[in-house]
User: Fold Cadherin domain protein from Ancylostoma caninum.
Amino acid sequence: MLRRPPTPETTITVRASDHGSPALFVDQTLRIRITNGSKKWSYFEDGELRVAISDTAPVGSIVTTLPVDGKAAIRLFPTSSTFKIDDYGKVTLLTAVNPGIHQFSVLAKSPQGEIDSLTVVVEVTSAEKIGPRISSASCGSITVPENRPLKNFKHIVALNATGEAKFSIRGSNKYFEIDPTSGQLSCPALDREEQSEHLLVVVVQDGDRKDSCTVRITVADVNDNAPQFASSTPQVISINDTVAMQDVVYKFSAFDHDAGANGRVLFDLVEDSSFAFDLVPETGELGLVREPERVGKDWMIRVKAHDKGVPSLAVDRFIRVQNTRSSPKTRDAQPSFLRQKYVTSIDEGLTRGQIVSKVATSSRDSRITYSIVEGNTDSAFEIDSEGVVRTSQELDYEIKDLYDLKIIATGAFPNQIKTQMIVEVNNVNDNPPVFPRQSRKKVLESKFIFIGTLPVGSYLTTVTANDADNMGALEYSLDPKEERFVIDRFTGVVHLATSLDFETVEEINVEVKVPQSTGADEVIAKLVAFDRDSGDNGRVSYSLVESHELFKLDSNDGKLNLLFFYSMPAWIRN
Assistant:
C-alpha cells in the first residue's frame, strides 16, 4: 500500500536490473504527485498557476505574486536554485533562465499541520519571440472636456518595445492624432453636441510584431449653449373676461442642447409693470393672479429662460399683453400667495444679506406680515415686510445644499396663508483638490528585489485626488523636467519611462500637481438692484464704470465674469 507522504509531490528512483553476471541496470527518476480529493483544508483558490517571462528577465525579477494572508507557512517544493518565494508570496528569479517550461510547487502549511499545494508553471519565452505589449492601464476609458484643444492628453505605453516601435491609430478619424514615437494622443477642441463619444483602436508596431488596445473617449459637457425659446412663442398675449384668476394664460417652452444641469431650463418673469402675472420657473406656466391696475390696455412683459449651468446662460423675450378685461366690481377678502411653491438658488460663500427671492400675494394691501416658520436651519434666512428673502449668514454647499422653507403671511384677512420656498445652494469652486492621507511607501532593494528590474513601460501606480466641489475632471501633471515617469493627464495612471539604477539613486520622490482652476468666463459675483418705478423707469441695467480686460459685466442680469484662466497648485510628495 502506498502511504501518502507529508507533501503532495515526491521523487523516487526506479532501477531495472538484469540477471546476468555481472548484473547490468538502468535508473529512471520519477516525480509522483499524490492528490487527496477528500482533503478539507484549502489555502489556494486554484490548483495551478501559469505565468510567462522572457529569457532576458534579469536576476531579481518578480515572476509572480501569490495571494497569501500570512496565516500559513509557505515554501517551494522541491527547493529550487532558480526561484525563490518570500513570506509575502512574491516569487523572484535567482538566476538567468533558458527558454522552456519550468515547474515547481508552492506548499502552504496551516498551524494545525494541514497542507495545500499550488503548481506553478513558468513558461520562459525567447526574447526574439516577444513582441511589444501595450499596458492595459494606459488604455480604457477617459473623459475629456469639450471646447478645449488637448495636446498630449493621454499617453499610450508599450512594454518590450524597441526604439523602432511606432504607434498609430487604426482606421480613419478626423479628430485625433498620436505621436508615432511617444504614443501621446492629442486632439483639437471637441464638441459634445456634435459627437459625445469616440472609440479609437491604437496599434503599436515593432518590426513584424504588433499589439493593439481600445481607447474610449467620452466628451464631458460644458455649458456653451444658451436656451432658445420655442419658435411657436407668440409676440402678443391677450386676456379678456373669460380668463379667471389663477388661470394659465400661456405656457412657455424652451430647449437647450447641453446636458444635465447645463441643459435644464428655468423661466423668470423679469419685468411686469402690472404685477398681474406669475410665472412658474419649472414649467413656464404664466398665470393671471391679480387684476391688472395702473396700466393701460397694452403693456410689455419680459420673460427670461436660463439654464442651471455654471456660469448660467440666458435669453430674454419681450411679449406684448393686450388687455380687454372689465374692471372688477368686488375684491376677494381672502388673498393667497401667487405661488404655492417658489424655487430659487443662490451661490455658496456670499456675504450675508444677499437677496434670494421675493414672495407676493394676490392682495395689494401693503399691511402684510411675512414669517419663515419651518426649514430655516441655523436661521440661515430672513424675510422682510415686503416679502424679500435674504441670507442672514454665509451659506456652504458642502454643509447643506438645499433648504425647504415654509413661509406664512398674516394681515387684514380672516386666515393666515402659507407657501413653500425651495432654496438650492449652488456649488462654487472654493475647495482645492487634496490627496488622501496615506502611509509613506518605499520600494527597497534586497539581494533579489529592486525596482531596477522593472521594464520600461511598467505600470507603477494610480494617484487619486479628491475635490469637495466636484466641479469637473481633475488634471494631473508632473514636473516638466521629470523624465523617469509619465502620468496620464486625466486618470492619474503612472508608468515607468526609463530604466532605474539602484546604485545611482536608492529612493525617488515624485511630486504630482493637481491645479484648482477658475475657468475663463466663470461667474465670480452677481449684482442685484431694485427700482420701485414701473416700466422703463424701473428697468435696471448694469455696466462697468471703467472697462477692464479681466472682467465682463452682463448689462441685463448683473453677472460679473472672469475672462482669463488661472490655477492654484496643490502638491503632494509621495
User: Anything to note?
Assistant: Residues 331-428 form a domain with the Immunoglobulin-like fold (CATH 2.60.40.60). The CA atoms of residues 41 and 83 lie 26 Å apart. DSSP finds no helices and 43 strands in the chain.
